[in-house]
Every structure is written in structure tokens, then in C-alpha cells.
Structure prediction request, 210 residues.
Amino acid sequence: MKVTIVNASPRKNWNTAQLLKEAARGAESVGAEVEYVDLYDLKFTACRSCLACKRKGIDEPCKCYWKDELSPLLERIWKSDKLIAGSPIYFSQPTGWFRSFFERLVFPALSYDDGSSLLKGSVDLDVFFTMNVPEDIYRKSYEARLNEYFEPARLLNGTTRLFPIFDTLQVNDYSKYNMAIFSEEHKKERRETVFPNDLKIAFEVGAGRR
Ligand SMILES: Cc1cc2nc3c(=O)[nH]c(=O)nc-3n(C[C@H](O)[C@H](O)[C@H](O)COP(=O)(O)O)c2cc1C
Prediction:
């Protein structure tokens, strides 16, 4: 079982990364081969619409022909059994780095002949989203949009599951920032009472028990 874990937060040790590290521990606990990648360490571009992946006569379908530091990771993900990704929500969407990554991951799998998938195998996709807003705002304003955004993930031929994590702690000391819309007391309380359970869920997801 090969599991690739991709952190699409620029912060390597904060909410998203902590969840993904627990997922990695979970996957390792059941003997999976795990690769963990901080996406912001890679120099890469979004899909450049070179359309090389749609050319007639190419040697390999479902291949991204644009060469940069993302290309080898994409090859490894297409050969994985599972991709566990994580992204903070920025302006009610996954981060720009995540969206660039997702374009490159999914577009080569799309057949422009009939809309089917060109990927030979299947990759199950689990995505953790961390965000400031509480659950009710997520359900009202974000959930439908994110579900729609992930519709093309069907081209990976596996399951797609989204795990939203609400009302995260954004900084350790709110008194040092102009962040008056947030209650530090409330954020800290959630961090102590709710986030540990989110980490447990991430472990279970990694271990394939959830
Ligand atoms: C540029 C930027 C935009 C953000 N936009 C939103 C937003 O639209 N909705 C939200 O709930 N949180 C938003 N946040 C907060 C982050 O999603 C939240 O703090 C997240 O848990 C950060 O993840 P990290 O700790 O892994 O970096 C934003 C943060 C930044 C830096």
C-alpha cells in the first residue's frame, strides 16, 4: 500500500501539517509505504495548457509533459493507492498552490475524446481542509462549492472524501496581532478540546480505519 501525503499549507508545522503528520503516522502504523511532501518546497507552475497530454501519438496517456519539480511527484501519486492532501482555506477555497497542483494532477487524466479517465489505476483521495470559520458557516457558504470543485477528482478512479476542520487556531498569541474579530479564549479552548480529536480522525484516516 503506497500513500502519498501532500501538505498544501505554506506552514510546515501548523494545523494542516499537524493533521497530515498524524495521517502519516496512521498509515505507517499499518505498514504503508508513506511519502510526505511539503508542496511549498517545490518550484512548479499551474497547468500551462501546453496540451501535450492531449497530443495524438503520445507514448503515455495520463502523463504531464511539463517538466518542473512537480512532474516526478505527479508520477508517484498516479502510482499510489492513496493520496492524502491538506490545505488551509484561503478566501473560501483551497490555497493557490493546492489548486495549481490539482490542475496538474487531474487534467492529464481527462480524455478530451469522451470525458473518461486515462489513468490506468486508481487513487483514493482524502483531503483535509483547515479554516477559521465555524462549522455552520462552512455548511452554509463553503461546502457545496468545495464539493463541486472536487468533482474532477473522479478522474483518479477512486473515492474522494473531504474532511473539513473548523475554527482553527491561527496564531499562538493573538495579542500580538490585529485580529479583533477572533476570540483568543475561544480559539484556545477549541485547540485543547476539539483539535486533539481532529488529530485522532486524521490518524484513523491514514490507517484506513475511517
Ligand atoms: C490568505 C489567507 C486567507 C484566508 N482565508 C480564509 C477564509 O476565507 N476562510 C476561513 O475560514 N479561513 C481563512 N483563512 C484562515 C486559514 O484557513 C486557517 O487559519 C487555517 O487553519 C491555516 O492553516 P495552517 O495553520 O495549516 O496554515 C485564511 C488565511 C490566510 C493566510
